[in-house]
Amino acid sequence: MLEIFNFFSKNISQILKEKLGDKPIEEINSLEEIRIRSNGSIILKFIEKQEVLHKKVVYQDIIETLQIMCNNSIYSYQNEIKNGYITVKGGHRVGIAGNCIMENEKIININYISSINFRIAREIIGCGDKALPYILKIKENTIYNTLIISPPGARKNYNST
After folding, report:
1. Which stretches within 36-101 are classed as H helix?
2. Alpha helices for 21-143 (secondary structure H)
């Protein structure tokens, strides 16, 4: 989990290390998102709570972080960026907000990136076991057309009730 610090600028990484460094590993592992806004605070979203770190982040921190996440080639990630997110090593998704550049009613780029939302990917072994009988057509060796939905932040957990 601590390898995610490598995706952020030195300043942001230091802030995160100071805040998370002395927390129990169970709490660190419950971290789901790191929200960073230029000229604003860093928000840590855990499974059960949110914490606001009152350390100001500047625009340069956002750009340095994005450079690191794009392996120092933001241009090569332009197709992902125009969709509002990039995927980095480990399967983590990073939402991007800024000024949209439009052409023919389509977004062709996002510049002046003002915030990023780092969503931490993790494997949860067995989380879909209860739902599989409702999704798989075992006899036909195929799957049912399935759409799993829930409100933001509510997770896609199967509940038999």
Report:
1. 59-69, 78-81
2. 25-29, 59-69, 78-81, 132-135
